[in-house]
Write a structure and sequence with these properties.
By secondary structure, the protein is of the alpha/beta class. The protein is built from ten helices and eight strands. Helices cover 32% and strands 12% of the residues.
Length: 294
């Protein structure tokens, strides 16, 4: 942890607006922040997070709004639990040298975690599910579990995750043709989202943290990776939400809702134009014809 005046050059613009506001206004009691987890020092997560080694390289591509404005974002906390991971902020990644190096490295087998008809559902591997057609709609070979296992015999699995709202993730994908070309993987959630302080657009949608938990679970089950501490991510998720709920119940805190949170199972889906717009983002993966319309 360090004071703002000792921050590395260039980190000022990446700091949460609330921290910048405190500094520019010259508040006499400025909060000491941890610039690793981006939480106040008194609530710093770093000491409680135990590193979980994985063979898979996780690459979190974070939307700028998620980075700068989201109080309850889970991507950064997940990244801090995984030493074999990295985080990049942006909307499009065609000009990001680090991201492109990971994609083009012949020692890597890069995939995109993104649902859709052409995505390989890892949850179905080894469970007697009928094999899917071997070709995609454009006639190219569809990724199969056998092919994935063969590829990983001599290469490292690199999983790219879009850390944003569903509409934001779709826009990020539209701006990154190299990500569009990656093979896609997905899973069938073993449980509904545990998000209490946010409502998912449709059933089956999960937070970034929950998605990594589900993916590591299925990778471990299929022998493609290890998941040494499966309880840690969900515990971090629970603690983060408990803190946000406690803040919401404190009338002395500004910037939080003043109504109790309902159970995720009791919530109704959005209807009308809002519901139709949400379903639009999830009905199918981004296709070439969407480039000019998404």
């Amino acid at each position: 942890m360090r004071w703002f005046g000792q921050m590395p050059r260039g980190l000022f613009l990446k700091t949460h607006p609330s921290v910048v506001r405190d500094i520019l206004l010259g508040w006499p009691k400025m909060r000491m922040m941890c610039y690793r987890c981006f939480w106040p020092q008194s609530l710093c997560w770093c000491a409680a997070l135990r590193p979980m080694p994985t063979r898979t390289r996780f690459v979190f591509l974070m939307h700028p709004k998620e980075f700068k404005e989201e109080k309850a974002g889970t991507g950064r906390l997940t990244h801090l639990c995984l030493p074999n991971s990295e985080l990049h902020m942006g909307k499009g990644f065609e000009g990001d040298e680090a991201v492109q190096a990971l994609i083009n490295d012949p020692k890597n087998y890069p995939v995109l975690l993104y649902p859709g008809e052409e995505a390989l559902n890892l949850s179905e591997a080894g469970r007697g599910v009928p094999a899917e057609p071997r070709l995609t709609e454009d006639g190219s070979p569809r990724l199969s579990f056998e092919n994935l296992r063969t590829q990983l015999s001599g290469r490292r699995l690199v999983v790219f995750l879009l850390d944003a709202t569903w509409s934001g993730a779709r826009k990020m994908l539209r701006l990154s043709p190299s990500l569009q070309r990656l093979p896609r993987i997905m899973f069938t959630p073993a449980a509904p989202s545990r998000y209490i302080i946010k409502q998912q657009p449709v059933e089956g949608c999960l937070s970034t943290l929950e998605s990594v938990h589900e993916l590591l679970t299925v990778l471990a089950r299929t022998g493609l990776d290890d998941y040494p501490l499966p309880e840690q991510l969900l515990e971090v998720f629970r603690r983060m939400q408990d803190f946000q709920i406690k803040c919401a119940a404190d009338p002395a805190r500004a910037g939080y809702r003043r109504q109790p949170y309902g159970s995720p199972a009791s919530r109704t889906r959005a209807r009308g134009r809002s519901g139709s717009r949400r379903l639009k983002y999830l009905s199918r993966p981004l296709a070439p014809e969407d480039k000019d319309t998404a």
